[in-house]
Design brief:
Layout: H1 12-37, H2 42-54, H3 56-64, H4 75-86, H5 91-110, H6 114-130, H7 135-160, H8 175-183, E1 191-192, E2 195-196, H9 206-216, H10 233-244, H11 272-290, H12 296-324, H13 326-333
Antiparallel strand pairs: 1-2
Helix pairs in contact: 1-2, 1-4, 2-11, 2-12, 3-12, 4-5, 5-6, 5-7, 6-10, 9-11
Length: 334
């Protein structure tokens, strides 16, 4: 990544944390852009902020894998432009956003996050299947990304083009284990399917999962669904299909020798993309739900109930952070 030049002036240990601070700041700026675009209140912004920055996936991955996961912090930037392409805007505005979307993909790869890059490419292809009218914009994004990334993709292609992944494809065993990954706090030293729990950890707490399900999906069943973010079946199906790849052996439908996609084997990690996407949609809908109430006293009560649940979510997430903090892992493994 471009930040590597800082190693000339910093020790490896200092560089790790300074580089993390840089990427954390980049993601915070992108979240602020999303907040302004969708006019999110402080409460709603706090929800997406804590889910994005402190979910089990990124905390455990940073603790175990380190720097190669920093491309994750570009996801808000990716979804900011992705949603613009999804929404009703002028052709010129969408085209410009598709260029920035391709640039975001390139920056993800530039951070060394090859697996996340492959997952985002697959996500875009699945979106194209159900939203073919967006092909002009999404193809522009892919072309821009491939052209900028050729210096990294071509060596990877030469290395993996003639062989399949040596590891068996593994993901969540069933819905029970999938739900546990989101709601059950486990230690770094627990295993599943011969893999460390960090490969399956998506902890956000039961309260957060309930909020995301209600405002990401069930809210469209109420009579005033037209007031919420326009999220039709063509937008839901790609998320559902992509999420299926998180389960054991589903990814086998993609031939193991397919260039680029043959680097993936632990497909449980795919779910981070649907999780952040649905959390973003849910946050937008929470704000729109607040605005449905014209009576200020009723609105205050609704916000108070949400605020209490948010407080519980934050406590649970920070407790997870305590369990998975890097200093503790260094101490207990040493």
């Amino acid at each position: 990544s471009p930040q590597i030049i800082l190693l000339k002036y910093l020790s490896v240990y200092d560089f790790y944390f300074f580089n993390l601070l840089i990427m954390f700041s980049v993601s915070f700026y992108s979240l602020i852009l999303i907040k302004k675009k969708y006019q999110l209140s402080f409460l709603t912004f706090l929800f997406i902020y804590f889910i994005f920055n402190f979910n089990g996936h990124i905390i455990s991955y940073l603790s175990v894998y380190g720097q190669a996961q920093l491309g994750y912090f570009l996801l808000p930037h990716f979804f900011y432009y992705f949603l613009i392409i999804y929404e009703e805007h002028t052709f010129k505005f969408k085209l410009r956003s598709s260029l920035f979307l391709g640039l975001s993909l390139w920056l993800v790869l530039l951070q060394g996050s090859l697996h996340l890059y492959v997952q985002l490419i697959l996500f875009i292809f699945i979106v194209l299947i159900f939203n073919y009218k967006l092909y002009k914009f999404l193809f522009v994004s892919l072309i821009v990304s491939f052209l900028l990334s050729i210096h990294r993709l071509f060596p990877a292609y030469l290395l993996n083009s003639s062989s399949a992944s040596a590891r068996n494809v593994s993901g969540f065993a069933d819905l029970g284990q999938f739900t546990n990954a989101l709601t059950e706090l486990k230690t770094p030293y627990e295993y599943f399917n011969f893999e460390g729990w960090h490969e399956y950890n998506y902890y956000i707490s039961f309260n957060a999962l309930l909020i995301i399900i209600i405002f990401g999906f069930f809210v469209y069943l109420i009579p005033k669904k037209e007031f919420f973010y326009k999220f039709n079946i063509c937008k839901v199906l790609p998320i559902f299909v992509f999420s299926l790849f998180c389960f054991r052996n589903i990814y086998e439908v993609i031939p193991r020798y397919t260039p680029l996609f043959n680097v993936e084997s632990l497909t449980a990690r795919f779910f981070i993309i649907p999780l952040i996407f649905i959390t973003l949609i849910a946050s937008i809908n929470i704000e729109k739900y607040f605005n449905l109430f014209e009576d200020k006293s009723v609105k205050k009560i609704i916000k108070l109930v949400f605020g209490i649940n948010l407080f519980v979510v934050i406590i649970c997430i920070l407790n997870h952070l305590r369990v998975w903090r890097l200093q503790r892992l260094d101490y207990e493994s040493g």
